[in-house]
Amino acid sequence: MAIRVLLVDDQPLLRTGFRMILEAEQDLAVVGEAGDGLQALDQVRALQPDVVLMDIRMPRMDGVEATRQITGPGRDGPAKVLVLTTFDLDEYVVEALKAGASGFLLKDAPAHELVQAIRVVAAGEAMLAPSITRRLLDKYAGHLPSGDEPVPDTLHTLTEREVEVLKLVARGLSNAEIAADLFVSETTVKTHVGHVLTKLGLRDRVQAAVYAYESGLVRPGAQ
């Protein structure tokens, strides 16, 4: 079945461009559009999309608050949010990820990256292209702790190997890359990631990455 996509952006020309790209794919279907966050909430309730392609800055209600309401408690459907951003709005991306977004994508990304990102998010994965993840994490480094702050007590619930996995997740590595780095199987990595999310009370890999940076476990730019 086709992945149902809702386009949310206050610029009609951008929505038209996204629609043309997505409707050229047999497994994607654009079911609606919205010009602001309030319209997006109405459209999500009415259309039940699988993925919401969400702009950040919009009139009436911005993408951060819309994301929070779409993905938060009492939500009306299983819609996942993929945030669109530009480098000068990185502080808003951080807030959108905290609000429940499943990932983010640069507005000037190639068409094939946009299509692939929607497929990844629809499939239940939270982390998008590692290269984009690393670039954005480094870019909003100024908004994160320096690493001198006390380590949260919850971090001590993790085993040594789980801490290693969390650090690699924060660097944007995929399960396959983590498995190769630690010389274990992908199944083992998935198990470790699951334990990390459960112990820290996190929803997905995106929240795990943000947690690792905010807790000071990983410093922006560190390898």
From TrEMBL:
- The chain residues annotated with the modification 4-aspartylphosphate are D55
The chain positions of domain HTH luxR-type read 151-216
Known PROSITE patterns for this protein? HTH_LUXR_1, HTH_LUXR_2, RESPONSE_REGULATORY
* SMART domains xref list: HTH_LUXR (SM00421), REC (SM00448)
Top-rank taxon of the source lineage equals Bacteria
- What name has this protein been given in UniProt? Response regulator
InterPro entries from the UniProt entry: CheY-like_superfamily (IPR011006), NreC/VraR/RcsB-like_REC (IPR058245), Sig_transdc_resp-reg_C-effctor (IPR016032), Sig_transdc_resp-reg_receiver (IPR001789), Tscrpt_reg_LuxR_C (IPR000792), WalR-like (IPR039420)
